[in-house]
Amino acid sequence: MNQTYDALVTGAGFAGAVTARELAERGGMRVLLLERRSHIGGNAYDCLDGSGVLIHQYGPHIFHTNSRRVFDFLSRFTQWRRYQHRVIAKLPRDNPQVVPGEKVTDGRFFFPVPFNLDSLKAAFGSGEGERLGRKLLDAYPAQSQVTILELRQNPDPEISALADYVYEHVFVHYTMKQWGQTPEEIDPNTTARVPVRLSRDDRYFQDAYQGMPLEGYTRLFEHMLDHPNITLELGTDALKRLELSDRGVALDGTLFEGPVIYTGQADELFGFRYGPLPYRTLDFQFETYPQDAYQTHGTVNYTVDEDYTRITEFKHMTGQKLPGVTTIMKEYSRAYTGQEGEIPYYAIINPENNALYARYKGEADQFGSLHLLGRLAEYKYYNMDAIVDRALALCDELLGK
Ligand code: FAD
Ligand code: UDP
């Protein structure tokens, strides 16, 4: 084969970077990696802001996995800071559940999310919360958690009332803000990520391996892409260099012989010929304060009021020691319109959109060498560990091992 590169990868997020490293290292292939942005890391990119605070530019990213393979693979490129994410929900002061004149504790305004046995006590007082907790445990003896949609099906009037409480105080308003739809209208797997816990475990994730890259995600990516067989071109839109035709995939006008791994939007790759795939986008508002800390937890969810869904304070997660200054981020969700500068963050999974995606996937499948991989290209919800796992598996296939 008389060409400079053996494999072409588009996008330097987790999907593209893991693939590039594996093909370069394990496969001994010369890999060209094209990234549209001016930096590596995709949405996991982090950097110092103007005040020296390490921030996640595209939303808070906490690493967690049950996969030993994924953890071992990434551990080659970073050490880890031990960190277990904990989230509390903030209810409004004029919480309509509170009867005027009633003595309330702060627990009525903050409780752990996922909603657990301690959240019950915070919401209903310790005696009543304890009793309801026992009732829940009796109702689901073999389970450690239950989804809100499942809980709402429970015929017992007390459990049903409790389900309504959780639905109202944790799910319905937050989900409306995040998706513009109710929990019943969205993919049930989405709310299932935040179940009602039948225990006192207040960690957001329960995976075996959890933590934050000690020097940040961008440094992790720098190490991962530091391989002599990888050529990285930043600020490069691959779609301006690639051409798909009956002959196959061409790069810069010449037919490309090796595998092509594409991690951008599937609809964009085919000129939106069947119409755009719907997405939610996010607006991030960063605020810096001249104080050590802004809130008690890495993330506080605003599950009932406010226009934003959550506030993240990065120092809790990164462990950065920087006295007298902190940066927080408020997240606002809205429909993605495809306008210049907007980023498609969340695929909106439903049968209609999946069918539209399948048409693009069908187009891609015409090209034996073209592989769609990642959150955008597969129109799928992937956590970081899941896409690393998927990328490793694709490389196993491509390399025949
Ligand atoms: P991306 O990171 O989006 O990378 C795709 C890359 O391709 C981008 O850099 C893009 O610029 C590039 N690209 C696209 N088109 C082109 C083109 N034409 N030419 C060149 N380059 C192109 N996961 C967790 O495990 N834990 C978390 O706490 C967590 N929090 C999250 C919070 C938010 C707000 C969001 C949105 C996601 C979160 N995730 C989290 C998920 C995580 O971001 C994804 O799993 C991960 O980014 C997927 O990697 P990817 O490579 O598929 O996509
Ligand atoms: N969710 C909710 N209230 C919360 C947290 C989550 O209603 O306090 C729902 C909401 O629909 C959200 C989904 O559960 O989109 C998944 O939450 P997660 O925190 O996993 O979302 P992500 O971090 O992916 O944005």
Number of helices: 12
Structural class: alpha+beta
Identify every distinct bound molecule in the structure, by name, code or SMILES.
flavin-adenine dinucleotide, uridine-5'-diphosphate
Broad shape = globular
Alpha carbon gap, first and last residue: 22 Å
What percentage of residues falls in helices of 4 or more residues?
25-40%
The total beta strand count reads 22
Low-confidence stretches: none
- How much strand content do the residues show? 15-25%
List the helices and strands and how they pair.
Blueprint: E1 7-10, H1 14-25, E2 31-34, E3 46-48, E4 54-56, E5 63-65, H2 68-75, E6 80-81, E7 87-90, E8 110-113, H3 117-124, H4 126-139, E9 145-146, H5 148-151, H6 157-179, H7 188-192, E10 196-197, E11 209-213, H8 217-225, E12 230-233, E13 242-245, E14 248-251, E15 254-255, E16 260-262, H9 266-269, E17 279-289, E18 299-301, E19 310-313, H10 314-318, E20 326-335, E21 346-347, H11 351-365, E22 370-372, H12 384-399
Parallel strand pairs: 1-2, 1-16, 2-12, 7-18, 16-22
Antiparallel strand pairs: 3-4, 5-11, 6-11, 7-8, 9-10, 13-14, 14-15, 17-20, 17-21, 18-19, 19-20
Helix pairs in contact: 1-12, 3-4
Q: Can you put this structure into words, describing what you see?
A:
- The chain has 401 residues and is of the alpha+beta class.
- Helices cover 31% and strands 21% of the residues.
- It has helices at residues 14-25, 68-75, 117-124, 126-139, 148-151, 157-179, 188-192, 217-225, 266-269, 314-318, 351-365, 384-399, and strands at residues 7-10, 31-34, 46-48, 54-56, 63-65, 80-81, 87-90, 110-113, 145-146, 196-197, 209-213, 230-233, 242-245, 248-251, 254-255, 260-262, 279-289, 299-301, 310-313, 326-335, 346-347, 370-372.
- Strands 8-7-18-19-20-17-21 form a 7-stranded mixed sheet. The chain has a 5-stranded parallel sheet with strand order 12-2-1-16-22. Strands 5-11-6 form a 3-stranded antiparallel sheet.
- The chain starts with 6 loop residues before the first strand and ends with a helix.
- The model has no long low-confidence stretch (mean pLDDT 95).
- The structure holds flavin-adenine dinucleotide (FAD) and uridine-5'-diphosphate.
- Uridine-5'-diphosphate (UDP) is lined by residues 89, 113, 170-171, 174-175, 178, 190-191, 193-194, 301, 303.
